[in-house]
Amino acid sequence: MEREHLKLVIVGHVDHGKSTLIGRLFFDTDSLPKEKIEEVKQICEALGKELEFAYVMDHLEEERSQGITIDTAQTFFKTEKRDYVIIDAPGHREFTKNMITGASQAEAAILIVDASEGVREQTRRHAYILGMLGLKQVIVAVNKMDLVDYSENVFNEVSKQTTDFLERIGIAPTYIIPISAKEGDNVAKASDRMKWYTGPTILQALDTFKKTEKRDENPLRFAVQDVYNIDGKRIIVGRVEAGTLRVGDNIIVLPTGEETTVETIEEFLKEDVKEAPSGKSTGITVADKLFIDRGHILYRKGEKAPHLLKEIKGNIFWMSKEPLVVGEKVVFKCSTQELPCTVKAIEKRIDSSTLEIIEENAEKLENREVGEVVLSFSTEVIVDDFNSTPDLGRFVIEKNYNISGGGIITHLER
Amino acid sequence: MITVIAIDALEYNLVEEFNMRNLKQEYYGKTDISEFSEPRTMVLWSSFMTGENKEEEILAKGDKEMWNTRIPHEETFFSHFENPFILDLPGYNYDLEQHERERRLLKEFFMEKDEEKKREIRKKYNENAFAHHRKIKERFLEALEGEYDFILGYFSVADVIGHLNFGNRMMMKMIYRDLDEIVSQVEGKKIVLSDHGMKAVGVFGDHSEYGFWSTNFKELGRPKITDFKSIILSETK
Questions:
Q1: Do residue A46 and residue B130 have CB atoms under 8 angstroms apart?
Q2: How many DSSP H helices and E strands does chain A contain?
Q3: How many beta-carbon contacts under 8 Å exist across A and B?
Q4: Element (H, E) at A167
Q5: Does the distance separating the beta carbons of A46 and B169 come in below 8 Å?
């Protein structure tokens, strides 16, 4: 039977020990290739220093950046219960972008905070993104406890500081764990240097988390990527974003509103495929010759339809040195849709680190700020509630051909 | 008080790629060494310490004798300080025997045809370079505790190891990280400076046509290696 795997993201300030924690998780679960550790250990000795997991992670990252394939075993670590996939290398430049665009859809997160430094600006920004994306399974790991003599008081202080901030962005961490990734305390093994802590280790905590429920039972959403003509067949290729697509389904094509029936589901080297579950990219043929194109969304007749709107309101995390300006035209991308839109209003400008409202009805949104923004379209855009169909509820904004911001739709009313 | 961390063959592009924040400090860039016909270690460090282009003079000594260059203290800008500490700098006080051993092993490696023997030589070469690096690092960190008005530590590890192992990115990254950590332990005004960088030639490394500089106190633009004499002296006045 295929083992279950859970997608995990580790976030926090750049110096708070993400690499070391990842290294420790890999090492303590015997998930690292022995020869790699040996190689790194030898160079460490040659340089006159102790082996640190961060170096092992450096090595793996280096291979990745060089395009040397890491076999899947190396990006996983395993517990008895399941496999964990750590998505996004820490410190990765594209990290924030990937989180928001959904390139990496984490199911759980570890927010790491240095016990000796407490919450920093980057901690808050990363936490903000977790909150914005609605991640509920969050562990706060108070790291480097070895540097504060494993002090319960320090831990309590940092915990309070962290939870105070998280509360304001709607995150209630599932666990707050004092750890030393470097020394291995409370990561895989319970620490005997912090007897005052009786909660779970990081691994025990992770094992209590649940897989994100599959959205097979939700109303169907099929996003069209392209249409091909192969051997006289017109194959509509796309991805099932939610629900389950079945042969014989009566479907409605948006935005045209035309109806048809799914005749076949086409998969390479497979015959007689009857259904495609949520998350599957596949091809279909339909009974009628309708106008169907990239960016169109198919849903099942009788089920709740997605929204067709000429105006949306969303929270945007801006990530470009060039500001987003009211009145300007930018490109809105959501699932396979790509269309121009106008920035109608920036109702609020928020500092993503302090959560302070900097300005209401602002003219501009600067780098690393969050805005409550109204976007308007000349043709209707097809969107959904972020919680039921994340892929139709999240979007990115392209300005001057660069992905410059991303966000989620907060208001679906016209 | 100013500390110079002189790193042979520290390559600008690798510092960027590995994002070594301590090596980069606040201001960093490439040096202009285009006035020299080739990026030669002995020529460049001799020019650095005197503030004059020493190429002609050094090359006149010939390939072998060049390595024995010892520029008198009073001809260097170090003489402007009362109690300077200069560690292992080529052309001034570097360990001749150590560097001679490195060059010999390097030559042996390229002369050897047998792959197995080549591996052995490389191993010996690397061990020798790393052992020297550990020693230099220890002495440098000790010196930081001392009562000096100028400190210069010269680190050859990136150059020596790079020549035979530049294609081993992990090894190079770990060396850069180690150098980065060394820089992080220096307090006060500091300059990181290389004579030249390094570029890949297959799995090996050869000198690149620019050096690297960084400071935590001043933007230097694209300085020449001979400019550092006046930069350092004006900063320590």
A1: yes
A2: 9, 24
A3: 37
A4: helix A152-168
A5: no
- Tell me how far apart the alpha carbons of residues A115 and A151 are, in angstroms, rounded to a whole number: 9
The first and second tokens of residue B137, run together, are: 């690092």
Q: Suggest the residue from A39, A41, A44, A62 to mutate for an interface test with chain B (most B CBs closer than 10 A).
A: A62
- Residue A372's contacts (CB-CB under 8 Å, 6 or more residues apart) are A313, A314, A315, A346, A347, A348, A350, A410
Among A49, A59, A91, select the one facing B170 at the smallest CB separation.
A59
Helix (H) or strand (E) holding A42: helix A34-47
Number of structural domains found in chain B:
1
**Residue indicated by tokens 């099942």:** A300
Question: Domains plus CATH for chain A?
Answer: 5-207 (3.40.50.300), 221-300 (2.40.30.10), 307-411 (2.40.30.10)
* Record: contact A47-B169, CB cut-off 8 A: no
A222: which strand partners? Answer: A240, A298
Tokens representing residue B121 in the block: 């030589």
B-chain residues near A46 (CB < 8 A): 126-127, 130, 134
CA distance B71 to chain A (A): 30
Q: Domain range spanning residue B10?
A: 2-236
Cβ B163 vs Cβ B199: under 8 Å = no
Residue A47 is nearest to which of B19, B130, B169, comparing CB atoms? B130
B133 in A contact zone (CB under 8 Å): yes
ipTM of the complex: 0.82
Burial of residue A6 (CB within 10 Å: 0-12, 13-18, 19+) is buried
Concatenated DSSP letters of B158-182: HHHHHHHHTT-HHHHHHHHHHHHHH
Q: Tens place of pLDDT for every residue, chain A, 414 residues? A: 667 888 888 888 877 888 788 888 888 888 777 787 888 888 888 988 887 777 777 777 666 655 543 333 336 788 889 988 887 544 455 566 666 666 557 889 999 999 999 999 888 888 888 888 778 899 999 999 999 999 999 999 999 999 999 998 888 999 999 999 999 999 999 999 999 999 999 999 999 998 877 667 789 999 999 999 888 889 999 999 889 999 999 999 999 999 999 999 988 777 888 999 888 889 999 999 889 999 999 999 999 999 999 999 999 989 888 999 999 999 999 989 999 999 999 999 988 888 888 999 999 999 888 899 999 999 999 999 887 788 888 898 999 888 888 888 988 765
Residue A200 buriedness (CB in 10 A; 0-12 / 13-18 / 19+): middle
Nearest to B89 by CA among B36, B5, B154: B154
Cβ neighbours of A39 in B, within 8 Å = 170
